[in-house]
Design brief:
78% of the residues lie in helices and 0% in strands. By secondary structure, the protein is mainly alpha-helical. The chain has one domain. α1 packs across α3. The termini are close together. It is a multi-pass membrane protein.
Length: 106
């Protein structure tokens, strides 16, 4: 169950990062509220997952899901550049996440 909470926390991190971009420096109230709710939910789910999972594993997976997810949203939704080097960097993050998961006994 902890892994489900952790993945949920990672997805909410993507939501709040995207909403922060859409808030235009906190000048747009709707995206700012979505960002705040996403942050609270993300941190709460991360905290619940950390009841069982090791700190290093949980935090690494959480930030990795957020980083790679925000990268994908940036390309797919915001039209950001998808250069080979950026894709390689994201792939290396995913490799690190898989390795971290495989090295955790829970």
């Amino acid at each position: 169950m902890a892994w489900i909470y952790l993945v949920g926390a990672g997805f909410l991190e993507i939501v709040w990062a995207y909403a922060m971009k859409q808030s235009e420096g906190f000048t747009q109230i709707g995206p700012t509220l979505v960002m705040a709710a996403g942050m609270v939910g993300s941190f709460w789910l991360l905290a619940v997952a950390m009841r069982t999972l090791p700190l290093g594993t949980a935090y690494t997976i959480w930030t990795g899901i957020g980083a790679v997810g925000a990268f994908v949203v940036g390309i797919a939704v915001l039209g950001e550049q998808a250069s080979p080097m950026r894709i390689l960097a994201a792939a290396l993050i995913v490799c690190g996440l898989v390795t971290m998961k495989l090295s955790t006994s829970q």
